[in-house]
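Bit of a strange request maybe. I'm writing a small parser for structure token strings and I need a real example to test against, not something I typed by hand. Could someone generate the tokens for this chain?
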Amino acid sequence: MFDAIYLCFAAAAWVIVGYKAVAWFRDRRNADLGLACVMTGGVATVFLFSAPSLYRWFDRLVGVANLAMVFLYSSVVVFAAGALVLLLRWTAGEGDAARARARAKARAAVGGVAALWAVAVTGFAVGRPDAVEHPRDFSTAYTGSPGVMLFLVLYLAIFGSSLAGLGMLCPRYAARLGRSWLARGLRVLAAGCWLGLVYCACKVIGFVLSWAGHEALWLSNGVAPLSASVAALLVLTGFALPAAGPRAAAWRRLRRLSPLWRTVTEETPEVTMERSAWSVRWPFADLEWRANRQMAEIRDVQRGIRSHVESDAVDVARERARAVSLDDRQLAAVAEAAALRRGLENRAVGHVPAHGADSVVVATGIEPAELGQEYEHLALVADVYHSSLVETVLTELRQRSSVSRS
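Reply from user aminoacidic:
Good idea to test on real output. This should exercise your parser:
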């Protein structure tokens, strides 16, 4: 069971690593993205070597018992070193001089971590007393071996200090970013760091109890690995959210906007752009671009039908919406849906009213900071496009148009 769980997590983690690596190769100047890629790779390797069968297979391959634990913990140290570099970069301040100081401190920090870890690995090499595999209880099996304990204590010190620093900094940095996916990712990453500290605390308490003659295997071999696994998942989620969140949001927008988009562009194919061959073959390609295009093309159609919509159509729709006590958002959506349907209907029969509408867009214009609200408004328009209330408004507009013509 543990093999299946950890290998599935490892596979998902390596997918995230691959995605981030591709993004980094496209933007090699983005050092933060490169660090995130390296740190995510460290977490993915931890999951890989946490699978007991792979752990034992690796040790049989190299002929050294528990050497897989060194690789597993080394991956955690790579993550910790990346976290320290991120901390130094984020707290460096502005200006070339500040960035130069941050780079110098980062090199010193990585060098210090490498030196400490070399001492830790040496302790493992000289202190390992037997050749028995311990993929699940390594920390409790060697509590009487000073060399292995040096290895474990240095590992926890490096890992815990990086987690504490990153866990404190991420929420502060996220507070500057508002309600963005990057901010959400940083907060989830911080939660993973704090839960990782629980893992470190469980291990240290387990050591102390063991030295005092009170074994607490349930703490060291049960609670600690469980908290570490959940923490690693939170860290991976935190790294994935800035990329996955906007794409998931774009997919939801596409699903909600597509029916309206297909309806309003059916008779005006000239406003639509041809999709790329890749997006035709893979439905999750170019999600944000396609969502933006659909919204822009709906707006293009609206601009093109203004002359076909009676100047008071929006006012009539607003009155009917107020009569059934709709809130402002729903009222705007009903008014815009009614005007849009009326314009398409009149254009289909070639009718141009004597006084056309100046605009059939009831919401505010598209501003970069308000794109989410604009999408939500158009999604509401799509939801009410075929509602009975809009049908009532259209019926009244048709009747008024017939009377005015007669």
